[in-house]
Amino acid sequence: MADQKKMVEEITSMEVDFAKWYTDVVKKAELVDYSSVRGCMIVRPYGCAVWENIQKLLDARFKETGHENVMMPLFIPESLLQKEKDHVEGFAPEVAWVTYGGAEELTERLCVRPTSETLFCEHYAHIIKSYRDLPKLYNQWCSVVRWEKTTRPFLRTMEFWWQEGHTMHETAQEAIAETERMLNIYADICEHELAIPVIKGKKTDKEKFAGAESTYTIEAMMHDGKALQSGTSHYFGDGFARAFDITFQGRDNKPQYPHQTSWGMSTRIIGAIIMTHGDDNGLVLPPAIAPIQLIIVPVAQHKEGVLEKARELADRLGKVCRVQLDDSDNSPGWKFAQYEMKGVPLRLEIGPKDIEKNQCVLVRRDNREKYFVPLDQLEEQIPQLLEAVRAGLYEKALKNRENRTYTAKTFEEVLHLAQTTSGFIKTMWCGDLACEMKMKEEAGLTSRCMPLEQEKIGDVCPCCGKPATTSIIWGRAY
Amino acid sequence: MADQKKMVEEITSMEVDFAKWYTDVVKKAELVDYSSVRGCMIVRPYGCAVWENIQKLLDARFKETGHENVMMPLFIPESLLQKEKDHVEGFAPEVAWVTYGGAEELTERLCVRPTSETLFCEHYAHIIKSYRDLPKLYNQWCSVVRWEKTTRPFLRTMEFWWQEGHTMHETAQEAIAETERMLNIYADICEHELAIPVIKGKKTDKEKFAGAESTYTIEAMMHDGKALQSGTSHYFGDGFARAFDITFQGRDNKPQYPHQTSWGMSTRIIGAIIMTHGDDNGLVLPPAIAPIQLIIVPVAQHKEGVLEKARELADRLGKVCRVQLDDSDNSPGWKFAQYEMKGVPLRLEIGPKDIEKNQCVLVRRDNREKYFVPLDQLEEQIPQLLEAVRAGLYEKALKNRENRTYTAKTFEEVLHLAQTTSGFIKTMWCGDLACEMKMKEEAGLTSRCMPLEQEKIGDVCPCCGKPATTSIIWGRAY
Asked: pLDDT band at B9, cuts 50/70/90?
């Protein structure tokens, strides 16, 4: 137990310093390492395995809904980036510029893609001729670069990994339906697979994506009450299509502009998983994406028959979950602490006494509840316990969000809440940028979203007293 | 049939102009599109699906052999690239340089990775402390950039996609064994999955990877007799470890340098598939990586019961292969040509007369052989026919290689063969760079590899007449 204590002590408590706790966890759980490239992270095998599991879930849902993967160039010529005015204004200040190829200075600078709307539009202009070519439902898995000043692993890095869907449709209605469909897929995966409750909503004009007509978002609340935007889905109308001269022959034989969407989820979601479910013992992973769902720790493994039985169980249980056996010569206490740090949802302990009784001990990571389970019931019990971990994580996160969500009718109430709490503040809003700026400058809050499920909190905007047009959620955000 | 003829005519015949045939195929089979970024290709859904299937085969073999995936930064600081002398000399002339982040000029240039040895070494220096930490068996899936002057889709592009494995070992023997293990995995996948016969061998010092002690390669012969290097595996000794100061505490408690390998296979292999198996009707895909293995084409589909039966078969056969039904209103002739162009290994035709007889027609893509198959035997016959296609493709490619492989004992014979044939020329070699240069300058040939399976063709080097130390294969290469 000395070993276990030693490891646990190395992490800062989340209540003492949440930011320090976060960086401790990403390092100790071996999710990332820092590199000498400023602001760029190395995603280590364990972090990469988490991302691969998230990718599989998303990619399967994309393919089920008719989307196809493509691979676009990494570079965007400056002239191409400039074709859509709002887009270039939003992104040009934060891109990396390639100016030399070998020893030769380029005649036109290339930026490393911060997002690929422009590249997709150029390609779509080549391949969309008729309404019969629509919809085009493409997605790309890649990394993108944004020249951020301050960075933190997963949450904000110069390079991050993501998928970016880019679709073209015959009508505005179809494009809007696609925007909603993909937002719903993101929300569904967050809630049902990652056990992260999210609020679906629309961004304000100030917070929407550069070049979009409207941006939809799913907002999650972290353990400390701050918000994390976890996935976005944009509707572009035909703005890019006009800028890139993409037309198709419509059913009426006349040229028309197609309607466009894009949508993305990134490695930021791993930051959300850490900060939603983690605790002072380290990471807690939702079973759906845990690289190891069940760790088998033999107890008194030098005793006859223990390792054999542990190996037999590892073989058997590989059929119902992702299982790993740790038969290293580290102590059981060290192993317990190690796999708690790594957030493995279930631990199976088996020693000589258990074998005598033909049972073993299962321990849940989320609440440390112990279960004595007959060996012949494991195939049945383990999937049930994994589901119980998922449900437990979701309930805990939802309760945290409910406890930290407040309603305010006046600006004084907003100010008081902003100064005394950390969480979501729901108000009404008139829709004016001036009031949104006042919230930011005087209360330190940014708008998270106008929820799709609207509430009537009052009649007027708390900032200006004018009639309200929407309910809105404010918070501090990662 | 008019439709079919029209499409087929659009491709240049491979015997008339092989290079033009190649670009016609990659475009018409919808594998790639060109972008406005010089030398960078867009991999379209069909090409991307081929690459994803290749990735799955490779990734499974890597994981079976204990390798783990990681994600490294896209950028390499100039000082890091310069740490290993031979390596920087090899790559610096062909990298893209980032010099600005937003509006700010960087104090140190960053290159876009052409390969990631330097980044892996920096990370390994952080995480390797003891012999207990070894081996480290990492792999990365990503794209890399090399500033090429002339480019062709898949064969040579500024940006290409690949996997790069980077491993560290306690001893030289273990590292050499890894180099061989990975070469064997590449060869195995080429021969058994992609139906491409390859020759395993060692590169000459002139042709080896920048910074490597030795480079192993698999060399394939294309339809036109030219060679394509299809995968490489490098042994580095401890050169990088010394340059990057990576040491571990050995079993003797003394600090030691680990021994290193790297190995890669890229989207070039898609070029190899096209040029090994393709014909004047377009692409021919080996079944293991074909996005569609069986295309169902209904004949007289407006007649009662035809589409219903075709859909029923598509549902049923999805269990034994990757199947697609084309129920569009294009003519059967157009569909036949379209899916031949796309290289689909098997076609199933079903019309009213077939349904009456409770049978259908299966047509192999590789040799157009037709089979009348009772509907209740399809689950049995289709996997057998897919295997027959694979075997047929392999045999044909092997025969081409055998027909185009020559042996020469004198330089006059070499010159004559180089002027009158296109293929592999096997000779003995003394090992001197001067003779290798003579082959290049006077005969236009480069060394492909010194085969692991050595042959005794004679006693002396045909260039200089000195005693030979090895047999070697020469050719012209993509």
From this structure: low
For testing contact with chain B, the best of A74, A126, A145 (most B CBs within 10 A): A74
CB-nearest to B94 from A42, A94, A102 is A102
**Long-range Cβ pairs for the range A457-461 (8 Å, 24+):** A457/A407, A457/A409, A457/A426, A457/A427, A457/A428, A458/A409, A458/A427, A458/A428, A459/A428, A460/A428, A460/A430, A461/A427, A461/A428, A461/A429, A461/A430, A461/A432, A461/A435
pLDDT tens per residue across span B209-242: 989 999 999 999 999 999 999 999 999 999 999 9
Domains recognised in chain A with CATH numbers: 19-277 (3.30.930.10), 287-388 (3.40.50.800), 405-475 (3.30.110.30)
pLDDT at site A169: 98
Of B45, B101, B126, which is closest to A147 when you measure between CB atoms?
Answer: B101
Weakly modelled stretches of chain A, pLDDT under 50: 1-8
**A143: nearest CA partner in chain B:** B74
Distance CA A446, CA A217 (A): 14
B26-80 pLDDT per residue, tens: 999 999 999 989 899 999 999 999 999 999 999 999 999 999 999 999 999 999 9
Within an 8 Å CB–CB cutoff, is residue B100 touching chain A?
Answer: yes
For residue B425, pLDDT beyond 60: yes
- pTM of this prediction? 0.96
Instruction: Tokens 């796999």: give the residue.
Output: A339
Q: Identify residue B362 by its one-letter amino acid code.
A: L
- Residue B345 token pair: 């290994």
Contact predicate A238/A259, CB 8 Å = yes
Exposed / middle / buried, residue A260 (Cβ in 10 Å: 0-12, 13-18, 19+): buried
Burial A167-191 (b: 16+ CB within 10 A, else e): bbbbeeebbbebbbebbbbbbebbb
CA distance B378 to B361: 10
Helix (H) or strand (E) holding A79, with range, is: helix A78-81
Rg (CA), chain A: 25
Amino acid letter for position A216: Y
The one-letter code for the residue type at A134 is: L
For residue B86, the model assigns a pLDDT of: 86
A66 shares contact with chain B (CB less than 8 Å): no
**Identity of residue A368:** R
